Amino acid sequence: MSEVTDWISASADVAAAVGTVGALWVGAVTLRRQVNDQHRQQAAAVTVAVQKGKYDNELLVFSVQNDSPFPVFEVVLIATDHGKDFQNEFVATLPPGKITSFTLRDTHFMGCRATFYDSSGKRWVRDFTGPLKEITPKKPNLFRRLYLVLFTHNPK
């Protein structure tokens, strides 16, 4: 009779261990999602704009503004003309609530975008039409890294 109770006790212990591991995994996934959402919120608070000049309609003012509560880093504001990069402005650190801008003569085909790093080191690009995209290179997972090490000469 004690063998049966030992098996029941061992099975209960295994079930409890599996449940604990599952709960820890769900907690880790939830925390990771919350952190990623916070980083996206910071990046979403950075805006890029193109506006007509205040006193001269032939001038355009290109600007990037940081409305997040944290600074953003290595900000590059890029003006484009016919899809080609025309001029850019680099700012090492853009503090919260600050704007950087430059003015150019309007060619009627101009747009702009900004690239920057958030406080966690993720790289983003924001287009003046609104889209925000993370451009941080993704690290390969364990199986991909193992494949690269074993079968290629590029273990990166």
What does this structure look like?
It is a single chain. By secondary structure, the protein is an alpha+beta fold. The protein is built from two helices and eight strands. The protein has helices at about 1-45, 140-150; strands at about 45-50, 60-65, 70-80, 85-95, 100-105, 110-115, 125, 130-135. A five-stranded antiparallel sheet has the order 4-3-6-7-8, with no helix packed on it. Strands 1-2-5 form a three-stranded antiparallel sheet. A hairpin with a 2-residue loop joins strand 3 (about 70-80) and strand 4. The N and C termini lie far apart (about 60 Å).
What descriptive keywords fit this protein?
156 residues, alpha+beta, five-stranded antiparallel sheet, three-stranded antiparallel sheet, 2 helices, 34% helix
Quick gist of this model?
The chain is α+β, with helices and mostly antiparallel strands and 156 residues long. The chain has helices at 2-44, 142-151; strands at residues 46-52, 59-66, 72-81, 84-94, 99-105, 110-117, 123-127, 132-134.
